[in-house]
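I hope you will forgive my troubling you with a question about protein structure. I should value your view on which stretches of the chain appear to form regular backbone elements. Here, with my thanks, is the record as I have it:
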Amino acid sequence: MRSWLRGLGRRVYRRLLEREIAGTPTHVAVIQDGNRRYARAQDEETTSGHREGAETTERMVRWCAELGIEELTLYAFSTENFKRPPEEREALFDLIAEKLRAFAEHDEVEAAGVRIHAVGELDRLPERVREAIDYAEGQTADNDRFRLNVALAYGGRAELLTAARRVAARVETGQITPEDIDVSTVEDALYDGPGHEVDLIIRTGGAERTSNFLPWRASGNEAAVYFCTPYWPEFSKVDLLRGVRTYESRRASHRRTRARRALALLRTVQDCELDEARAVLRRLRDSVPERTDVDALLDRPDETGDRPN
């Protein structure tokens, strides 16, 4: 009975969140943390946590499509993950290759128009993973309604270093000059990956850091960040909706801040113009010996009730 009531309460809360949300981000990026800790909590092998996390990934794609989110980037394997024990690393590579192939062949993926794209230093991955990437990308190449980026052998610093080297090489060969370098130059040198700037980063597992994930595309866009405690295998649609609500709050706060700045700028300009006008009127008054209408203008209080000095 208690479990039924909890389930009912959760469904009602989820529907409430869905009704509260007025808009959704275009691009969500997820740091899927907690697979190993989840497995340990269940007294299971680490590979079990990764496998259950892969099931959450499939659900996440469906939830994003339902909400109208156009792009999802998943931090599946970082450059730091190469330091993990070989047996764990190899098991994870096997799972990634298996899931990429299975996902690319899934009827739901085809129906949702999902296009799969891998991002990162892909040449560092084992051949079986690279072959699975080629297969998944080729199988979904004609889909164009939803973009799923899988970050593999990815690190934000490594991406920026690679971009810097590419730009430097173009300068060295005379293709561009240092003065030609702008935002678009750097963006063209980044990994061929996400199509949109990141609007929202979600991290599961309780840690409050973004772990070197998409720094150019997220920081430059001032992406909202939502940290939540569930391990990735436990992540639910309610957690996603809470993340979207954080994005909406961040966007509303940004709009209010911009409005306040614009108002302050307008008032500053108005004050400057008023001071300049009064200076002209004083010069006119000084050139006329008798009291005129100019004196009346100068004596008139402004909108704040203050008289000019």
User: Anything to note?
Assistant: Residues 237-287 form the longest helix (51 residues). The CA atoms of residues 39 and 48 lie 6 Å apart.
